[in-house]
Amino acid sequence: MVLLETRGLTKSFGGLVAVDGVDLAIEEGESISVIGPNGAGKSTLINLVTRMLDPTAGEIEFKGESITGYEPHEVVQKGVSRSFQTASIFPELSVEENAQIASLAAEHGSFRLNFLRHRDNYGEVEASAREILDAVDLLGQRNVTAEDLPYGDKRRLELAIALASEPDLLLMDEPTAGMSPEETAATVRLIERVKEELGLTILLVEHDMEVVFNVADRIVVLHRGAVIAEGAPEEVQGDPEVQEAYLGGVEA
Q1: What is the predicted pLDDT for the residue at 119?
Q2: The total number of structural domains that make up the chain
Q3: Which of 74, 137, 155, 205 could make an SS bond with 42 (beta carbons 3.0 to 4.6 A apart)?
Q4: Could you please report the per-residue DSSP string of 142-208?
């Protein structure tokens, strides 16, 4: 089943076309990596799918339903979640409190008056938060203040927050950015395990080709906002147009 589909998806900023007529179809259970030189439109594409940006033209469908006019929180409630290039957490709260807040928002759709009730009244939320932390190997650090975590563990916490909404599609924007080789390897193992255990469909934007080739079932290559290649990792790796795009250096 096609879980996410874009048709003619376009985003212009003045005279700059950041995403140019992208047609993309992601099957349920696939891991797709979007790669391309800097400035190719990768993060803009993610922002369009998650409705952080409005498209200039084109259509976005999720589970066969148009989400083009949805608000970002409505997309999350439909089953789309994302992690960002930089860790987006509540630094002054504990690891467990971060997970509880994310679980609470997922459980109730929004905080509103529910947030004024003591979180201990939410047994299911607490159980969910601990299950998520266990999935990303942070349960043992649940009482640590988030800002005191090492960088790699902050990214793990952000992944836990993204998983709290129990998404069908997880979008990850540069999940290993700024990580050491050891942290990167651990994150790859974590992504693989989460995909296998939770059955997630993953759309990954990543610069590290070793990560891409370890995680992706299929690769989509963007250059100047347009798709120039698509296929299995070994197919894309040998594509002359892809090699030329990367040899061309950094895009404006």
Answers
A1: 45
A2: 2
A3: 205
A4: TTSBGGGS-HHHHHHHHHHHHHTT--SEEEEESTTTT--HHHHHHHHHHHHHHHHHH--EEEEE-S-
User: Three-state secondary structure along 69-102?
Assistant: CCCHHHHHHHCEEEECCCCCCCCCCEHHHHHHHH
Q: Are residues 109 and 153 in the same domain?
A: yes
pLDDT at site 110: 45
Per-residue burial over 135-155, b if 16 or more Cβ lie within 10 Å, else e, is bbebbebbeeebeebeebbbb
Measured CA to CA in angstroms, residue 207 lies from 31, 46, 49 at distances of 16, 15, 19
The HSE-up count of residue 227 (CA atoms within 13 Å, CB side) is 19
Residues 109-157 have pLDDT tens digits of: 544 334 444 445 557 778 888 888 988 889 999 999 999 999 888 888 9
Residue 68 sits in the same domain as residue 190? yes
**Domain coverage including residue 116:** 89-166
In contact, 183 and 175? CB cutoff 8 Å = no
- The H-or-E segment that residue 103 falls in is helix 95-108
| Domain boundary pick from 114, 132, 166 | 166
Structure-token match 């589970």, residue found: 63
Check whether residue 105 and residue 29 sit in a common domain. Answer: no
- The pTM score is 0.83
How many Å apart are CA 91 and CA 116, to the nearest integer? 21
Same-domain check for residues 140 and 188: no
